[in-house]
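Incident log, structure service

09:12 report received: a user says their structure output differs between two submissions of the same chain.
09:20 pulled the input from the user's history:
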Amino acid sequence: MQIELTQPGPLLNVQGRLAQIGWSRQPLLACNLENARFYALRPLQRFRIKRWDYYAIFTPQRFFSATVADLGYAGNVFVYTLDFASNELHEEGLVIPLGRGVQLPRDSTAGETSFANRQASLRFQAEAGARRIFVDWPGYHEGRGIKAELTLTCPPGHESMTITIPIGAKRFYYNHKINCLPTQGYIHYGDVREEVHPHESLGSLDWGRGVWEYQSFWNWASASGYLPDGRTLGLNLGQGFGDLSRATENCVILDGRVHKLDQVNFDYQSGEYMHPWHFTDNEGRLDLKFTPFHERVARTAMVVIDSEVHQMFGRYTGHARLDDGQEVEVRDLIGFAEEHHARW
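09:34 re-ran on a clean worker, output below:
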């Protein structure tokens, strides 16, 4: 059973447990992480709480992503971009001891996310109806440099996917994902300046807060694109993290409306990531083939943090059945699917 939340309230009760468990079409719960109670020595809790804002933009020419995160032990900021024509991908990141200088807002609906030092400056601003991204990294890619100013528009009534789930007895995950946000602005990478237009470019947000087991694993798949008739189509699929019996993040988003799926199976061969992936659900509503064309491998190896992600970029083809029974055909929708292992 998928439990849809409809009432606002706090994320955590006074005992530090989730006040509500389920999914919602908009974020309803105030992220009161100060109520967390999972260590007897409460000052140690800040080292286990994870927070991040991850933005991703699909344009006709490239994929662009920027992240600001606080993993408790350390902050992490990174930017990467993939050119679809040349298949060139470049990524750079900074690890910030104890997250000094990393600013992340309490909730996902408003506030500023930022980090700046001599190497790079990233700022994300969330406000009513829009999200603004500013990135300036002069030394990126051996001085090639990257700079971006982008505005992601959130149309009135645009639905998103929020889940609130337990991880074990004391831990939890609160996540807000928004797909298919029309994006305008520019990306200036090296000698190339790309103007980004909202009728052909879409952005998305992965906003996460929570406390995980030290050793974690998950799969995630996402896409945002335009159908031939001009409607937007988004996918958000996930498995492997926490207790998903009362809420998964699985959904199809058509023209800003979430169509909820129950359990979705990721059929792929770990270690052979360039082979096709197959996605089906337990209710016969989803059947998608994902054909990768590029693999991004990101590894972080520190004293207490060790992670490895294989993020595949590719094309989705197949069909999905919406809540009203309508069938939507998916053809060559560019997106990604990933496998992630972490000790953090």
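09:41 both user submissions now match this output. Likely a transient worker issue. Closing.
09:42 reviewer note: The two ends are 30 Å apart (CA to CA). Residues 9-343 form a domain with the AttH-like fold fold (CATH 2.40.370.10).
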